Amino acid sequence: MKTAALIALLAPATCWGLVGITWKFENEPTRGLKDVTFPFNMTNAPHESGFYFAQQFNFKGVPDVGYTGLQPRKDNSGGSVVHGVFSSFQKGTTSSHRNCHGGADGKPGVSCAVDINASYSPTYNLVVENTSGTSWRGTLIDASSGKKTIIGEWTLPSGALGIKSSQVGFVEFYPWNAGPHKCKNLPKTQVTFGKPTSETGGTGPGFVGDAYEYGDCKGKVGFKMTTTGEGVRVDVGF
Fold it and tell me: pLDDT truncated to tens, each residue of the chain (238 aa)?
């Protein structure tokens, strides 16, 4: 898939993205996947609001994306804060979960989020799973301790099936959405996008592709990509 097409896929979720990264499974079941787990590690991210590390996903039978990911936050009296996100941009998505509200970045859909006091050191698994019918749950799991925190739940319109077997993720610095910015002022951060997994039968192994830059600061933010045993590590900023 060409970079231009990848950027187009990113557009619904972030207009000031910095880095894109593909993910895929070897096979796609006829009715789509019933679950996907996306690992993230943000050990060396700053404890400040601004960055968003996310993976997008599409559902068979409906056109618009969902996404899940992590955002650093400023420490509070309880220590470091991990912010988990689980959202749908699909018109007609509904939710009654306490962590969710209508709308997604000013568009139709539902946004869910949760803050937990937790270390940045562990890998966190963001699990998207079908609960029944067209209803889905997003869960934040500390891969070291196994501690689970539900981010939220929402229900897609009728006709929605399972998750498609490929999409793209991104690194965004969302304060830049508010107006002009200087590329040289991007704070330094690091994140590892792990290989996706699924318990849906027949999907085969999951993969993450090479990360790539895009947007108006392409080539100007100290981008570096490193392939590791866990996935792909991305460094940007100064």
Answer: 333 344 444 443 445 699 999 999 999 999 999 999 999 999 999 999 999 999 999 999 999 999 999 999 999 999 999 999 999 999 999 999 999 999 999 899 999 999 999 999 999 999 999 999 999 999 999 999 999 999 999 999 999 999 999 999 999 999 999 889 999 999 999 999 999 999 999 999 999 999 999 999 999 999 999 999 999 999 999 9
CA distance linking residue 55 with residue 39, whole number of Å: 10
pTM: 0.94
The residues, any chain, with a CB within 8 Å of residue 131's CB and separated by 6 or more, are 137, 153
For domain 3-236, the question of CATH label 2.60.120 is answered with: yes
Q: In what order do the strands lie in the sheet with 79-88?
A: 100-104, 107-117, 79-88, 66-76, 51-57, 166-173, 17-25, 206-213
